[in-house]
Design brief:
alpha+beta, five-stranded mixed beta sheet, four-stranded antiparallel beta sheet, 9 strands
């Protein structure tokens, strides 16, 4: 069984995606304020926000395969794959993990626990990778 480690994309992408999601929430709040009686449109807009937020949180995760690290995205054809033998360096920053490969760099926002699990997973599958910790405590 493969374990999913939930992450978010790098800062600029996260800000843009969550800004659009919060616009849906703003729309539901404005509908609620403008229409002072209970309306189905207000509830539908709020439920749409909940659905979009859930898709954004659940749809982005990292999976360690046999010889490939896969970073799944909400839109599946944008998923990023990197072979373990192509990983040159893993850098742990305060809020993100940066995986530098031969041909690409993958940046992910993650909690402290998930960052450590990503580092441990890469260390397990690719023992010769340089791992640096730039996390200021």
């Amino acid at each position: 069984m493969t374990k999913k480690l939930y992450v978010q994309p790098d800062w600029p992408t996260s800000i843009i995606c969550w800004a659009f999601s919060l616009m849906i929430l703003d729309m539901s709040l404005l509908l609620w304020l403008e229409i002072t009686v209970f309306q189905v449109w207000t509830v539908l807009a709020f439920l749409l926000f909940i659905a979009v937020a859930a898709v954004q949180v659940i749809g982005r995760y990292v999976v360690f395969g046999e010889d490939v690290l896969t970073v799944h995205t909400v839109i599946s054809f944008n998923s990023k794959k990197i072979r373990y033998d192509q990983i040159k360096q893993v850098t742990v920053l305060r809020t993100q993990v940066v995986i530098v490969g031969r041909y690409q760099t993958i940046k992910m926002l993650a909690s402290k626990k998930v960052r450590q699990q990503i580092v441990d997973g890469v260390r397990e599958h690719a023992s010769s990778v340089k791992i640096t910790n730039n996390f200021a405590k």
